[in-house]
From TrEMBL:
Lineage summary: Bacteria, Bacillati, Bacillota, Bacilli, Bacillales
Pfam families per UniProt: Aminotran_5 (PF00266)
Family: Belongs to the class-V pyridoxal-phosphate-dependent aminotransferase family. NifS/IscS subfamily.
Xref: InterPro entries: Aminotrans_V_dom (IPR000192), Aminotrans_V_PyrdxlP_BS (IPR020578), Cysteine_dSase (IPR016454), PyrdxlP-dep_Trfase (IPR015424), PyrdxlP-dep_Trfase_major (IPR015421), PyrdxlP-dep_Trfase_small (IPR015422)
Organism this protein belongs to: Robertmurraya beringensis
Protein name from the UniProt record: cysteine desulfurase
């Protein structure tokens, strides 16, 4: 059986050139970047060069990049670090109901420390309302954290508009760009954000490495203590090989990016049209025209998400849902609940398809055939 991987929003295969880059570094550059001898200086050179490449990819300065262990740590450091650094100015935070749990759980922890969090609702397409945001903004708001593109349904939020509203406000603006980086054109100056989170494994880089962009002169209370790495903002010996691999993945992602965006957008249309040609009833969760190019979330009336996932895996197609499937029970996707309500059938019958490296038109067509066959069987 030829297995098809359509779950790139969860994680992506590591590019062969990234593996090669990391292997060379691991073989030849084992020094500690903080050491002053030649071995340490060689490792430091790799870290510095990688940081410069990564910073350039988002229009940032090298000193504004903090290397982390991935998206979760980047989100945590941004939210907890800013909240603790600016709590003398207020205790109010604004976020949305459809953020990644790395954001939601970080906010939840701050509530226990006396902070107040406003969770903006979304409409049936997963978008927040600018009017709701204006009403939520207070003088004592110190942080706004709103994701660029959603990991489950792909909806893109009005980041630039929010940033404009915060131009004369004290609140710092953080966006989780983990799903958007590598495909969307992200320039921190144009976006107007103060902090931005990214993870390498979403762009065919290694797991366990990411970065947090922190605009110059933005205060940040560190969450880890030890050495003085990352300008005293994140202690710990740098993961040199993974940092080099990350930089290589960023370089590769920039090549033919427009073509990849077009290809993934076509894959989404092809999958939908192929299913509809087989008389499969479906609904798109979110919007096709205002979404991340590689994420497609579909609702199949009359099906059950757990049965769908198991059957598709048995047929060799790897997809996912926003649900955490446990033994005999399903915890509904908080994103779909926010969009459609707890009682909606969509929270129990929706599947996420996400495209990336090595996917082909033939794989998408084959996946449509498999999906149609399973849906027909389950709804018979």
């Amino acid at each position: 059986m030829n297995h098809i991987y359509l779950d790139h929003a969860a994680t992506a295969p590591v590019h062969a050139d990234v593996i090669e880059t990391m292997a060379v570094v691991m073989k030849e550059q084992f020094g500690n970047p903080s050491s002053i001898h030649s071995f340490g200086r060689s490792a430091r050179s790799i870290v510095d060069e990688s940081r410069s490449k990564i910073a350039k990819s988002i229009g940032a300065k090298s000193e504004e990049i903090i290397f982390t262990s991935g998206g979760t740590e980047s989100d945590n450091l941004a939210i907890l670090g800013v909240a603790k650094a600016y709590q003398k100015n207020g205790n109010h935070i604004i976020t949305t109901m459809i953020e990644h749990h790395a954001v939601l759980h970080a906010c939840k922890s701050l509530v226990k420390e006396g902070f107040e969090v406003t969770y903006l609702p979304v409409d049936e397409y997963g978008q927040i309302s600018i009017e709701d945001f204006k009403k939520a903004l207070r003088d004592e708001t110190i942080l706004v954290t709103i994701m660029y593109g959603n990991n489950e349904v792909g909806v893109v939020q009005p980041i630039k508009e929010i940033a404009m509203l915060l131009e004369d406000h004290q609140a710092k603006f953080h966006t989780d760009a983990v799903q958007a980086f590598g495909l969307m054109d992200l320039d921190v100056t144009e976006l107007g954000v103060d902090l931005l989170s990214v993870s390498a494994h979403k762009i065919n880089g290694p797991k366990g490495i990411g970065f947090l962009y922190v605009k110059q002169n933005t205060a940040l209370t560190p969450l880890s203590f030890g050495g003085e790495q990352e300008r005293k903002r994140r202690a710990g010996t740098e993961n040199v090989a993974s940092i080099a691999g990350f930089a290589k993945a960023v370089e590769i992602a920039s090549i033919d990016r427009a073509e990849k965006v077009e290809q993934f957008t076509e894959f989404k249309k092809l999958l939908i049209e192929s299913l509809q040609s087989k008389d499969i009833t479906l609904s798109v969760n979110g919007l096709l025209e205002n979404s991340l190019p590689h994420v497609l979330n579909l609702s199949f009336p009359g099906t059950d998400v757990e049965s769908m996932l198991v059957n598709m895996d048995m047929e060799g197609v790897a997809v996912s849902s926003g649900s955490a499937c446990t033994a005999g029970s399903i915890d509904p996707s908080h994103v779909l609940v926010a969009m459609f309500g707890q009682e909606s059938e969509r929270v129990r019958n929706s599947i996420r398809f996400s495209f990336g490296l090595y996917n082909t038109k033939e794989q998408v067509e084959r996946s449509a055939e498999v999906t149609a066959r399973i849906v027909s069987r389950l709804t018979r």
